Description:
With about 325 residues, the chain is of the alpha+beta class. The protein has helices spanning about 5-15, 65-85, 120-135, 140-150, 165-170, 175-190, 230-240, 250-260, 270-295, 300-315, 320-330, and strands spanning about 25-30, 40-45, 50-55, 95-100, 105-110, 195-200, 210, 215-220, 225. Strands 1-2-3-5-4 form a 5-stranded antiparallel sheet, with helices on both faces. A two-stranded antiparallel ribbon has the order 6-9.
Amino acid sequence: MKPPEALRLAKACLDDESLTEQSVSTRRVCSLWSGMGSIYELRVADRLHVAIKHVPVANPKATFGERRKAVAYQVEANFYEHAASQFPTLRLPQLYHMERPENSITLCLEWMSGPRYSSSSRVKDALTWLATLHGESWGGRADALVASCGLHAQGTYWHLDTRPEEHAQMPNRGWEGRLKRAARAIHDALQRDVMQCIVHGDVKEPNLLLDSNGVVTMCDFQYTGKGSPTQDLAYFFCSSVDTEEVDEEQLVRHYHQVLTQKIVDPSAIPSWDHLQLSMDLAYCDFCRFMSGWGYWGSVDDIQSRVKAVLNRLDNGKDLGSEEAYDAAIRRHFW
């Protein structure tokens, strides 16, 4: 970032025209996905410490994936501009300044200066954060936030409608072939789930931050939108939790307890059994994406769980069509 641009942004963040280039320091931290923009660190002595995310979003020659990502960055800007204030008890990075000309987005966000997030010691804190996001946007409030704040109608970065290439690349045989044919029914069942809320959509360890007081927060709201809360949970456990070191049931029960406290309408609180069924579907949904993209995280655990769900649906024998798996999902789930 050139010094005049850094100075201009620092002045905008602090509303101080007296700043000079000598008082502002910057460094490039990293490039964003597929080179679509950069993140910079900007400091003004002891007055300001921000992360600057700069993203070009207009490219007439963009690929399908690049167009998907450009929309996602628009959603992230919408979240900070319109939705963040709707979660007053949720710790979020402070937005100091935003610019949204036609061809780019620039976000100037609070730099989280706390120690590095450690999944083994802070999983409950992350789940408390998620339960707060989910509970405070439960039910019809999720639809209202999508409509008024410009969030995704379907949250998460792996949902089936945006991942046709990965679905096509799944094996056609074996348990993954069965999962491939069940994918649409699983996706639709998660959309029918009575548990609906705003999901973060990319809950992984690199997106979990600690502020100077050690409080957990989250960044990267590019795939935030409506969904079943278990989609966030399944992805988090797959991508960022060593399930051999923790008791997953105990952690999910902690999440359920906090969620129960955050949902305003007692009649809308999900039962533990329903949450578990939804978790089964969410694991299958994310495994479907990994099957076409590539596996990482707690692979053995998720594959074992998915195989068990498939066996429940088809008794270990391929049902042969998407329609047959849809009927089986409706019999065994909803």
